[in-house]
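Lay summary. Proteins are chains of building blocks that fold into shapes, and those shapes determine what they do. In this project we predict the shape from the chain. Here is one chain we studied, written as its sequence of building blocks.
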Amino acid sequence: MIGSVHGRVLSKTPPQLAVEVAGIGYELEAPMSTFFLLPGVGEEVRLLTHLVVREDAHILYAFATEEERRLFRSLIKVSGVGPKIALALLSGVSVEAFGRCVQNKDIDALIRIPGIGRKTAERLLVEMKDRVGPHTEVAAAAAIAGIVAASPEAEAFGALVALGYKPAEATRLLKAAGPGTHSTEELIRRALQGAI
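And here is the predicted shape, written in a compact code that computers can read:
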């Protein structure tokens, strides 16, 4: 099992990225929350990984935090939820927000994420309730507090996806919103103005 990679970013095309480690280029798939934390092409990065082995492929998934990887691993154990759906969930909602959805049984928030239907959302609420509790949420909140506070882009991306924009379109709109420090609300406002 490959647990992490540490190397130079070769390319970033959500949801795929490539990282060169000791002369070997690894192709990885990552949620948008991880993409917003990636350094530029050519710079060094360290990512946690999870390897999924199928009959026709070995796919390496990358995560910026242990909490994201832990949630991904829990999600793919749920009946009917594969790596693609787990990646969509992590792209559409933060670890902390997912914990709140499960605790509050907020099915509507889950079905707003592209690729998540009502049956899948119901199954997630039932099967994840014991895996996501108050202690888990507090630990996740403490661990990702810096990322959530430092990443209004990830929150804005999740909001745009929840509004029905495809991940690639949401990414394009956020890039067009312009560089600089903006609040989540300001990023969403600028992105939506760019969509008109």
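What the prediction tells us: The chain has three domains: 1-64, 66-150, 151-195.
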